[in-house]
Amino acid sequence: MSGRDNEPKKPASARFPFFLGRTRAMNASGSSGWEATTIGFTLVGCIAACSGLGYYLDSRFGTGYWLPILFLVGVAAGFREMFVVLGRVSRQQEQAKREKQQKIQLAPHPSPVEEIREAPARDRIFKVPPPPLAGQKPSETAPDEPESVDELIERLLEDDKDEAK
């Protein structure tokens, strides 16, 4: 046995360079932000690679048409990859949004058959008289006990007779 076998093993994240471990962690968690940041590099990389290949073929064979053709192929490939990545990011965000909405528990709607019960009336600590009506003096405020419906109708009829005179 060598001395290396006795050493404790490092965790997987310590064996890889920092940026590779971070990339794997982001992809494992479904983070779409990492993919979205690579779109620009992918587009430029496709164009540069195809243009370089076109330049090489033109100089090797003494032609003049490979560079523009492969430049356009690189542009098309870059945009295609951009749309693929954007579609994947969009699907991941929609899925995360749906999962978040499913976690939200909404209160059930009351059925129309159920009666809505009012809270029982509580005794008030302070009894505050109602404010005086417009044009009424404070001394003419209503008594502590509410008047019955019949008394109220009689009082209103008397007020109408007084106003008519």
Properties at a glance:
rod-shaped; 165 residues; mainly alpha
**Class from helix and strand fractions:** mainly alpha
Give the radius of gyration.
41 Å
Shape: rod-shaped
| Low-pLDDT segments | none
How can the largest sheet be summarized?
none
User: Which whole number gives the mean pLDDT?
Assistant: 76
Number of E-state strands: 0
Instruction: Work out the helix count.
Output: 6
Helix/strand order, N-terminal first? HHHHHH
The CA-CA distance between the termini, in Å, is 122 Å
Question: What percentage of the residues does DSSP assign to strands (E)?
Answer: under 5%
The portion of residues assigned to helices is 55-70%
Molecular structure report:
The protein has 165 residues and is mainly alpha-helical. Helix content is 59%, strand content 0%. Helix 4 runs antiparallel to helix 5 (66-103).
Concise summary:
With about 160 residues, the chain is mostly helical.
